[in-house]
Design a protein that fits this description.
single chain; about 300 residues; mainly alpha; globular
Length: about 300
């Protein structure tokens, strides 16, 4: 009899644990339910997003911004732009850090043309996408605290974070958030609607992040070719005319001309440009107060 009672007790305890866990799991699921703000619903109404798709979209829009890479911009969205970019100077910046590349230019600024600079912090800041930032490029030899290899995988056939990609010019701290805006709106968004999610429009300003930074060895006083003219340089970035075809013709930006007539907040009051230094350990550190976006406070810092 005593044994039977013990067995019965164990069964009851087991059932309580199982059903109790189920109740807790259900409670957690209910807690995770996303409530949209009036502003978010208004945007989705305008973009004609179906109610069932709004929770997923807004979840992505609320996440902390991070770099996702140029490959994410390709495919069903910006194929012609991606293909043109791969043939542009920005699409081959990482390759210039390899031994034997750009010999004359390196000698001109007293760099060793036979040295491998693909892991040099000072170079990676401006030759890759999002280096030392969330989701950004990580060079060979990068490891987690547990010793796991975290280096960015490089595919020679598909340029990505190892080059200066879309996000280095178009985003404040990576394109993960405004990518969700683009997908939800199907391109029918205004500058004012995309800026709160990390898209920037102060292009002539953001180019100074690298081209005229005091730490670059390629200064105008070294050679006239290093004088930076934004209007001239931007013509070399997106030579898309030759990359439209039957497969991507439906990706042409219908609202591009309309947005060109708008003036975004980042154009009126350009964002600050990150400044950095190389510390005693040889690591690149951003100087306090120079980042254009504060991820903790979710605020932007303008000039």
């Amino acid at each position: 009899m005593g044994k039977m009672l013990k067995i019965l007790s164990l069964v009851l305890v087991s059932l309580a644990l199982v059903f109790g866990t189920g109740i807790e799991a259900d409670a957690k699921k209910k807690k995770k339910k996303i409530e949209l703000t009036e502003k978010e619903n208004a945007l989705f109404d305008k973009w004609e997003v179906k109610p069932k798709k709004r929770a997923k979209a807004v979840k992505d829009m609320r996440k902390k911004p991070k770099f996702v890479g140029a490959v994410k911009c390709n495919g069903s969205c910006h194929d012609a732009y991606y293909q043109a970019w791969t043939k542009s100077p920005h699409g081959g910046t990482y390759n210039l850090l390899k031994p034997g590349e750009r010999k004359e230019a390196k000698l001109r600024v007293k760099l060793d043309p036979e040295k491998d600079y693909t892991t040099t912090p000072l170079c990676l800041r401006c030759h890759t996408t999002g280096y030392r930032q969330k989701g950004g490029f990580k060079p060979a030899g990068s490891k987690s605290k547990k010793g796991k290899d975290t280096a960015t995988k490089i595919d020679p056939e598909e340029p990505n974070k190892e080059q200066v990609g879309c996000e280095m010019c178009h985003s404040v701290a990576g394109g993960s958030q405004f990518r969700a805006v683009m997908k939800s709106s199907k391109g029918n968004f205004t500058k004012a609607e995309s800026e709160p999610y990390g898209q920037r429009w102060d292009y002539s300003n953001v180019c100074t992040r690298c081209h005229t930074h005091k730490n670059t060895p390629f200064q105008p006083e070294v050679h006239d070719k290093y004088k930076f003219n934004f209007e001239e340089r931007k013509l070399k970035v997106h030579k898309i005319a030759d990359y439209w075809n039957e497969d991507n013709a439906d990706q042409k930006l219908e609202k591009k001309d309309d947005r060109a007539k708008e003036e975004g907040q980042t154009e009126k009051t350009p964002l600050v440009i990150e400044d950095f230094k190389i510390n005693d350990k040889g690591k690149l550190k951003f100087k306090k107060g120079t980042k254009p976006y504060n991820s903790k406070k979710k605020t932007f810092k303008y000039k």
